[in-house]
Write a structure and sequence with these properties.
Radius of gyration of chain B: 14 Å
Strand content of chain B: over 45%
Helix content of chain B: under 10%
Structural class of chain B: mainly beta
Number of helices of chain B: 0
Shape of chain A: globular
Largest sheet of chain A: 7 strands, mixed
Largest interface: A-B, 24 and 24 residues
Distance between the termini of chain B: 41 Å
Structural class of chain A: mainly beta
Oligomer: heterodimer
Number of strands of chain B: 11
Number of strands of chain A: 11
Order of helices and strands of chain A: EEEEEEEEEEE
Shape of chain B: globular
Order of helices and strands of chain B: EEEEEEEEEEE
Strand content of chain A: over 45%
Radius of gyration of chain A: 13 Å
Helix content of chain A: under 10%
Largest sheet of chain B: 6 strands, mixed
Chain lengths: ~110, ~110
Amino acid sequence: GAVVSQHPSWVICKSGTSVKIECRSLDFQATTMFWYRQFPKQSLMLMATSNEGSKATYEQGVEKDKFLINHASLTLSTLTVTSAHPEDSSFYICSATYSGTQYFGPGTRLLVL
Amino acid sequence: TQLLEQSPQFLSIQEGENLTVYCNSSSVFSSLQWYRQEPGEGPVLLVTVVTGGEVKKLKRLTFQFGDARKDSSLHITAAQPGDTGLYLCAGRGSSNTGKLIFGQGTTLQVKP
């Protein structure tokens, strides 16, 4: 099957620091990956589309300088939350498309103190 | 802008009861997926429906795609506590970006 992993599964950081989250497709190659943010008991909110070898496409209202995305290989995309603040605390989930279906990673819980 | 309206957003029922979750839109989707998500985990794909009028069954879960491919429903028969979770419908839109459009989600609690 199509498996997507994320690392770390949870992270606690101080306000002002940067945090990097990795998303990997384990058994398939993904030219496109997606990054979502989710608040408790709410649906997923698409932040950006990560494209291998080119710039990410950000959704309206998402700061590209705040949420840096790098898709350097066909199996890895990274999301870096720069100068994190408490309001950035959330559950971040990535997905990758395989045979037309999006498969999701297990998510990363970020807590900014 | 394509939107998916999912209802109800919260549902608390007793074990053994039946329930139906709806996703509606004014737009046509090329396919629609249903996911189930447990707290602290990523969504897990339950089913993909592609053809208008299609019905798919997964044990006690029945999924239907509307004839016009604008709406879908998820029916659970004899719900069990293990069915508790967040159910999400997501439609693949008309653009070629591959982006999914998500409904608001339905939080289901099945009490023993």
